[in-house]
Design goal:
With 251 residues, this protein is an alpha/beta fold. The protein has helices at residues 30-38, 79-82, 103-112, 128-142, 157-166, 183-189, 204-212, 225-234; strands at 15-18, 43-50, 56-58, 116-121, 151-154, 172-176, 194-198, 216-220, 238-241. It has an 8-stranded parallel beta barrel with strand order 1-2-4-5-6-7-8-9, surrounded by 6 helices.
C-alpha cells in the first residue's frame, strides 16, 4: 500500500464504554448501556454470541457461571431459556433480575439514541465462522435503516471471515492481545479497516505501521489517566475503557 495512504479512522467518538459501563453495572446488559449513556458516553463496546437456536445475544464468557444465576455453556440453551435468566444479581442487589439482552434489543437502544457500537464477535469455541456469519446477517437486517454501520471486531479470524462473507460492507477490526506471527497478513487478508489491541501492546512504532497502511488503531481496556494521556499523545484513534466515571467522554 502506498506510504501516502490515509488512515481509515474509527468513525465513532474517541472514548468507548466497555461492555456498556465497564464495571459500574452488570456488563453487557441494557442497564449498563443506560448507565454509560448517563455518564455522557455515545460509543459502546459489547460481546455477542449465539444461543442454541441461533439467536445473537450479549455475553462475554462461554459459560453462564460468572455473570448470571445459571451454570453451564450458554450455547447449550435456547434464547427463550437465556432471556429468563438473572444477569444482574451477581453484580449487586440493585440490578437483580436484569436480563440478558438480545442483539436486536441493543440495536433498538443504540439507534434510538444515535450511539456508535463496536460489536465484538465472541463465539463459543467451535462456532467461530457460524457466529460471524449469523451476526453479519442480523446486523444487515437490524441496521438497514441506520445512518451508519457498527464496527465488527474479534480475536478470531474465522469469525471475521464469516462476518465478511455475510456482510462485506460492514467494517471489521482484528482484536489482538499479543502480536502473534502473521497478524498483519491476516488483517490485510480479511480486509480489516483497523486493529484493536491490548493497550500494553501498543507503541508509537506499531501505530505508525498501522497508520502507514491506511488503517485505524484502537486500544482496550484503559482505566488510568497516565497511559490514556500517552496514547492520546502518540495519536491513537480510540480508547475503550471501564472507567466511565473517570474519563469525560468529550475530553
Amino acid at each position: 500500500m502506498s506510504s501516502e495512504a490515509k488512515p481509515a479512522r474509527w468513525p465513532g467518538p474517541f472514548w468507548v464504554a466497555h461492555r456498556g459501563a465497564g464495571k459500574l453495572a452488570p456488563e453487557n446488559t441494557l442497564a449498563a448501556f443506560r448507565l454509560g449513556a448517563a455518564h455522557g458516553y455515545r460509543a459502546f463496546e459489547c460481546d455477542v454470541k449465539l444461543s442454541a437456536d441461533g439467536k445473537p445475544f450479549l455475553l462475554h464468557d462461554s459459560t453462564l457461571d460468572r455473570t448470571t444465576a445459571a451454570r453451564g455453556r450458554a450455547a447449550d440453551r435456547t434464547w427463550d431459556e437465556l432471556s429468563r435468566l438473572d444477569a444482574g444479581g451477581w453484580h449487586s442487589r440493585a440490578y437483580a433480575g436484569e436480563p440478558l439482552p438480545s442483539l436486536e434489543a441493543l440495536a433498538a437502544f443504540v439507534q434510538a439514541n444515535a450511539f456508535d457500537l463496536n460489536i465484538e464477535i465472541k463465539p463459543t469455541p467451535g462456532q467461530e465462522a457460524e457466529t460471524g456469519r449469523v451476526v453479519g446477517e442480523q446486523v444487515l437486517r437490524l441496521w438497514r435503516d441506520a445512518p451508519a454501520w457498527p464496527l465488527f471486531s474479534s480475536f478470531r479470524p474465522e469469525s471475521l471471515a464469516g462476518a465478511a462473507e455475510a456482510a462485506p460492507d460492514i467494517p471489521r477490526a482484528l482484536l489482538l492481545d499479543t502480536l502473534w506471527p502473521g497478524w498483519f497478513d491476516i488483517v490485510r487478508q480479511l480486509g480489516c479497516r483497523g486493529i484493536v489491541t491490548n493497550y500494553q501492546v501498543m507503541s508509537a512504532e506499531l501505530l505508525a505501521q498501522v497508520h502507514g497502511a491506511g488503517l485505524f488503531a484502537m486500544v482496550y481496556t484503559v482505566n488510568d489517566p497516565s497511559p490514556a494521556a500517552w496514547l492520546r499523545a502518540i495519536g491513537i484513534d480510540g480508547i475503550i475503557t471501564d472507567a466511565v466515571d473517570r474519563f469525560a467522554p468529550a475530553g
